Amino acid sequence: MKRPRVWIDLSDISTWKGHYTGIQRVVVSLSGQFAASEEDVRFFVYNQRRNEFLRTQLSTITRPETDDMPAPDRASSLGVRLKALMRWTYAHTPTRIQRVVPPERRRQIRAAGGKMISSLRANGRSTSLPTDGPAQFERGDIVLVLGAAWERPGLLPSLAKLRQDHGIKLHCLIYDLIPVIQPQFFGPGLPERYTKFMFELAANSDGIMAISQSTSRDFGTFCTSVGIIAPPVSVIRLGDNPELQPVKSVPVVGIESESYILAVGSFEARKNYALLYSVWKQAALNGQILPRLVIVGSKGWAAGDTLAAMQLDPDVAEAITVLGGISRARLTWLYQNAMFTIYPSTYEGWGLPIAESLAYGKPCLASNTSSMPEVGGDLVDYFNPLDPQGCLLAIKAYLEPGALAAHHERIQSEFKTTSWAATLQQVQRNLAGEE
Residues with Cβ < 8 Å from 334, sequence gap 6 or more? Predict the structure, then answer.
């Protein structure tokens, strides 16, 4: 029996600048696998301002990464600057005035600010992208949304209308529900906007794919809490090596091989680099010398204080190096030449750097919360992300003579990598109703 045509939304990467990170890496990797398969697959982008779907080509949207590409500059975006202005304005409002604003009114103000930022982002995106005219969806076609659709508020309602009026099947990949579960780590308006998005997604999807059992459980809990019967949910495992083509490693100037501990992930509050600052600070005060900590990640939300402390504190400034978004070639070198990696995040939907570390044969220390134990199983050692002393003890255990060699040998013999071709097969089985 012939499989239905699959349409994949590329809106998420159509305006992305610099190296692909996080969700964008997943979109590019899975879309590339679909394009190379025998599936009847087509690609589209959503124009928020005109509320229209435009057919495009994957080769038009994606581009090979080079070492001189700019890093994704979240901090300079209009939306982030507006958020910073909103925070400043609130912080400088006298307390006596803040107190007279009812909590419900504060939530409404935050939500309105979030909508304004989303609208400005959407209207500011380029509409000159080469396209092949309107996307012609037909009854029975499958529309697959892999990216951050909550950044385009009109996308899901428009797809829901297509589903109702023209009989398309809507399938979505969800990464996490962290803005709903831990709203304190996100800017004004996003938790409310994300909650609304999840409600719409649950009400209008024919199928959901979650990237972990943890996310699947969180989604089920959310649906129960809002009184919606959850659509069918399956769990897929992401590939461990996101690039479409193998890359040769390129050394990072100033970093010596086998002399550092590597942490990978956007530099934002939720990633919990404040814990690592506390660990390295405490070690310095105790007269203990830890290897250099190298952090790789573009600057994100609420990272300024921790970053400033790392750079200005004389006890740790020489022991911690923070790199922005770098090429896959340089990141590959950093993985290959690290002593081991560490991932202190407070909460995750998956934890791709853990899987990547193991794929490179490198031992990893990670937080013991949410999805992270799913990624590495008993090949990874875990710590409480709220316990600096426990984290320090875990690091010191890895630095004991022979410890890393034993971990490395076990990873080499027991860890099984997941290719993106294997992830594609999981998605295909899900779309065919086989999982």
Answer: 252, 255, 262, 264, 294, 296, 326
Give the span between the Cα atoms of 234 and 423, in whole angstroms.
13
Q: Which CATH architecture has domain 260-414?
A: 3-Layer(aba) Sandwich (3.40)
Whole-angstrom distance, CA of residue 99 vs CA of residue 102? 7
What pLDDT tens digit does each residue of the chain (435 aa) get?
678 999 999 998 888 777 777 888 899 999 999 999 989 999 999 998 999 999 999 988 886 655 545 444 444 444 544 554 555 455 555 555 656 667 676 666 666 666 555 555 544 444 456 788 999 999 999 999 999 999 999 999 999 999 999 999 999 999 999 999 999 999 889 999 999 999 999 999 999 999 999 999 999 999 999 999 999 999 999 998 645 455 678 899 889 999 999 999 999 999 999 999 999 999 999 999 999 999 999 888 778 889 999 999 999 999 999 998 788 889 999 999 999 999 999 999 999 999 999 999 999 999 999 999 999 999 999 999 999 999 999 999 999 999 999 999 999 999 999 999 999 999 999 999 876
Does the domain spanning 6-68+124-239+420-431 belong to CATH 3.40.50.740? no
Kindly report whether the global pTM for this prediction surpasses the value 0.85. no
